[in-house]
Structure formats: structure tokens, C-alpha cells
Design brief:
Helix content: 40-55%
Strand content: 15-25%
Mean pLDDT: 82
Shape: rod-shaped
Number of strands: 13
Structural class: alpha+beta
Order of helices and strands: HEEEEEEHHHEHEEHEEHHEE
Distance between the termini: 46 Å
Radius of gyration: 52 Å
Oligomer: single chain
Number of helices: 8
Strand order of the largest sheet: 2-1-6-5-4-3
Number of domains: 3
Length: about 475
């Protein structure tokens, strides 16, 4: 499998910024050149207008065409034509012209002003010249060809004849200016792009330096597997600082999870060792002396192992994020079902419900019936181990919540220990044997299941002085078909 070539964020950012600036500079340069060219063309038009108007004024005052004092063709080529396009007068040395609508540059026997063959019947007074348009073309004067902007002026001579005066202004200055500006821009573009690239490279390097520190530290943490280490947090308040804080929070959560997992494995191994060793001893004694085999004890150890294995499996499923079902579970009915098999217990279980537990009625919660049944069984087992004579289970609704309270008349739980009792493998009464006190997983499982269902499990003091465990679950109003 081939690996793709490495491209750093800094290189990509520098390249992207340079390309964007290059495109912006090219667009701006084109706009400047077009504007410059337009302005210079406008100035040439104005210059050509002035020359054409001056000649038109002379024609309007009756100056004969051969006697017109036309400017030099190099600077301002002039062509005077009638409406038929015949040349009446041209600048000295003008041998070719284009862009004026007439290419005639050889005046014939020029008529006097007013003798226009196409306007024999026209009569009137001379009129001032009127600019009728502009065009771009070429003119050849004394063998040299160049580009010009031509102005067209229409004028009426004293005899009523209408002629067109075409006067040109050179575009050499415009071409030189545009060429010079283009050269300057092209020469300066690489320099500007180099400056932009260098600045972007340095700024990006400075901005990404904390990211590289975070990456380096994370690499060392991975190599050393020391989850107690943390990445450096920059003093800024930008995205990199938030990334560092989030990374440290993730490392802290991961450290807690790994430590909890290690402790869980150690405690599970410790808890499994005792019943396995006891069962092995009994079986070895039974193999050597069948008459001494304690069958009830072996069965009891086997049951303990089975329960512990089931608890560990459930905890593993909960830690893996297993989602509970959404079946509507009637809590009062569930309590009665769990307590029905405890008729032989020394402690009486009394169930009190604020609603009639008929089909589809009562106080219901949405979730897994099997898991919620496990919670109720664990709470009843815990209360049975600590109660003197009675356990009271109350089921009631409180707004959007379904509450299940299990209270005993034992010694209760000290306030300083009310959170610790929900930790795994914790038994407050260390004098209690494992057979009597269990493995210390029941309450931990009960709280984990409650929280997976969107609720919680807490402990307070019961009115009788014992412990009162309160299971709070989101209430399910509408019954749903039986699921899990």
C-alpha cells in the first residue's frame, strides 16, 4: 500500500495564500491597465477633437480647401472629405489612412467651399463643427505607419456644403505608458508574491508551533503509555488553546477509565479467587474422600461464581455503552415480581404504590425490563442484608419522573459514605464476610443501569433510621408493546 506524500498545513496555507494574492494582484493589474488605457484614449480623443474643431472653424469661415493650414501628419494627420468620401484636403506626407471611413488621400481639383456635388441645391450659412464620432485607425506619413485616435467633425461651409474633418492624435504615448506599467507590474509581481509567501510561512509557523508541541507530547505519551502526562496549554484564547484543553480533558478521562479498568480487573480477580479456591478444595477433598464432599457448599460456591460472572458481564456491557430497550415497565408490578420469590426471607417486604398496578396502568418507566429488574433485585438484596425486620418499597410519580424508594430499618449509611457505596467492589462493613456481604457490585450496577436509562440512584436516610435508596427514572405515560 503506497503512502501519500506528506504535505504540511504550513505549506498548504502558504501556497493557498500566495495563489489568492496572485489572482488578486493579476485582477487588480488588469483593471489598472484597462483604466489607464481608457484614460489615455480619452485624452487622445480630446486632443483630436481640438485639432478637428480648429480646422472645421477655418472651413466654416470660408478658407479654401487648398489653402487650409493643416498640421504636420506625424503629429496630427488630417483628412477632409465630402459626403461621398472624396478627399478635399489631407496633411502633408499622408500616404495612407484607415479608420476614418474613407481611404482617399489624394485630393483632386478641389471645389471651392459650398460646391458639393451631392448638395447642389443646398444653401445657407456656415455652421460650427460638430463632433460626430471617434475611431481608432492607422495612418502612414512619409513612409512611417502608426496608430491614431481619429475624431470626426461635421461642418458646413459658407455656401452650405457639408464636409467631414478627420483629425488624429497619436497613441504612441498611450502604448508606451501601458507597456511601462505592464512591465513594472510583471517585475513586481514575483517580489510581492515572495514577500506574501515568506510572511505567511513565518506567521503560520508561529501559529502552529503550539500544535507541534501538542503533537510531540501526544507522541511521547503514546510511546511511554503514561496517561498522567498532559499536553502544554498556550496562554492564548484561540482554537489551539481550546484544542489543548480538550486534549487534556480527554487524557484525564482516559486515565480515569484505564485506572478504573485496572482496578476493576484486579478486584474481579480477587473476588473470583476465593470461590474458585473453595470450590476446588471441596472437589479435591470429594475426589479423595467422597464421603466428605460438601455438595451444598459446592453448589453455593458455584452459584456465587455464576452471579459474579453475570455481574461482571453486565458491567462490561454497560461500560461498552449498550443502549437499553424502550419497553414500558410498570415499577410496582416489577417490584412485586421480584419480591414474590423472597417469601422465605427473614425480612418482610412491603410494597406501597400510589397507583393501581393494573394492566397498562400504574407508574411506568421506559427501558429494559431485564435491567430494571436487576436494579430492583440488587436494591432488595442490599436492603435484606441490612434490615432488621422490614423493607418498605414505595412507587410513585413525581412530575415527569417515576420514583422507586427502597427503605430498610437497619443502621443506615453515614452521610460521608453515601457516594462511596456506589463504587465497585466497595463494602462499608468490612467485618461482613463475602458470603454475607456479596462482592460489592450490586449498587454499582444499579446506579450504572439507572443512569443508562436517563435517571439516577441516590441514598438518603429512611424515616425508620435506616437507608433509603431512591431510584429516579423518566416516566413513560403511554404503554408500548412488550419488547425486551
Amino acid at each position: 500500500m503506497s503512502r501519500r506524500p506528506f504535505a504540511s498545513v504550513r505549506a498548504k496555507t502558504t501556497l493557498g495564500a500566495t495563489l489568492v494574492v496572485a489572482l488578486a494582484l493579476i485582477a487588480a493589474g488588469i483593471a489598472v491597465l484597462l483604466s489607464l488605457s481608457g484614460n489615455l484614449a480619452g485624452r487622445a480623443d480630446a486632443e483630436a477633437d481640438g485639432v478637428a474643431r480648429e480646422i472645421a472653424a477655418r472651413i466654416a469661415t470660408g478658407t479654401p480647401y487648398p489653402a487650409l493650414d493643416l498640421p504636420d501628419g506625424d503629429d496630427h494627420p488630417v483628412q477632409v472629405v465630402d459626403r461621398a468620401g472624396r478627399a478635399l484636403a489631407v496633411s502633408k506626407g499622408l500616404t495612407a489612412i484607415s479608420g476614418t471611413g474613407s481611404s482617399d488621400v489624394r485630393p483632386e481639383a478641389s471645389p471651392s467651399p459650398g460646391q458639393d456635388d451631392d448638395d447642389d441645391d443646398d444653401s445657407g450659412t456656415a455652421g460650427a463643427g460638430v463632433v460626430t464620432g471617434h475611431a481608432q485607425g492607422r495612418a502612414t506619413v512619409d513612409g512611417t505607419s502608426a496608430e491614431y485616435r481619429f475624431a470626426e467633425v461635421e461642418v458646413t461651409d459658407p455656401e452650405g456644403g457639408t464636409v467631414l474633418v478627420h483629425a488624429g492624435a497619436p497613441l504612441a504615448a498611450q502604448r508606451d505608458a501601458v507597456r511601462t506599467a505592464s512591465f513594472v507590474m510583471l517585475a513586481g509581481l514575483p517580489v510581492l508574491l515572495a514577500v506574501v509567501g515568506a510572511v505567511t510561512w513565518l506567521v503560520t509557523r508561529r501559529a502552529l508551533r503550539p500544535v507541534e508541541s501538542i503533537r510531540r507530547e501526544m507522541s511521547e505519551i503514546t510511546a511511554s503509555q503514561d496517561l498522567s502526562r498532559r499536553v502544554p496549554e498556550p496562554g492564548t484564547h484561540d482554537e489551539v488553546a481550546r484544542l489543548a484543553r480538550t486534549t487534556n480533558e480527554t487524557l484525564a478521562a482516559l486515565e480515569t477509565s484505564v485506572e478504573r479498568q485496572r482496578r476493576f480487573v484486579a478486584d474481579a480477580s480477587h473476588e473470583l479467587r476465593s470461590p474458585i479456591a473453595s470450590l476446588r478444595t471441596q472437589l479435591e477433598v470429594g475426589a479423595a474422600h467422597p464421603e466428605l464432599l460438601d455438595v451444598p457448599g459446592a453448589v453455593e460456591d458455584t452459584v456465587r461464581l455464576q452471579r459474579l460472572a453475570a455481574d461482571l458481564l453486565l458491567l462490561a456491557r454497560l461500560d461498552a455503552g449498550e443502549r437499553p430497550g424502550r419497553t414500558r415497565v410498570d415499577l410496582a408490578e416489577l417490584v412485586r415480581a421480584e419480591s414474590a420469590g423472597r417469601t422465605g426471607d427473614r425480612v418482610e417486604v412491603r410494597v406501597e404504590s400510589a397507583a393501581d398496578p393494573g394492566p397498562g396502568e400504574g407508574v411506568g418507566a421506559a427501558g429494559s425490563r431485564a435491567q430494571l429488574g436487576r436494579v430492583v433485585a440488587n436494591l432488595l438484596d442490599n436492603a435484606r442484608r441490612h434490615a432488621r425486620r422490614r423493607i418498605t418499597v414505595t412507587v410513585r410519580a413525581e412530575g415527569p419522573w417515576a420514583l422507586l424508594e427502597v427503605a430498610d430499618d437497619g443502621t443506615g449509611v453515614p452521610e460521608s459514605e453515601r457516594e462511596r457505596v456506589f463504587e465497585r467492589f466497595v463494602r462499608l462493613d468490612e467485618a461482613r464476610t463475602r458470603d454475607e456481604g456479596g462482592a460489592g457490585l450490586g449498587l454499582a450496577i444499579a446506579r450504572d443501569v439507572a443512569r443508562r436509562h436517563g435517571g439516577d440512584l441516590t441514598v438518603t436516610q429512611a424515616p425508620s433510621g435506616g437507608a433509603c435508596f431512591v431510584l429516579r427514572l423518566p416516566r413513560a405515560e403511554d404503554p408500548s408493546p412488550a419488547g425486551r
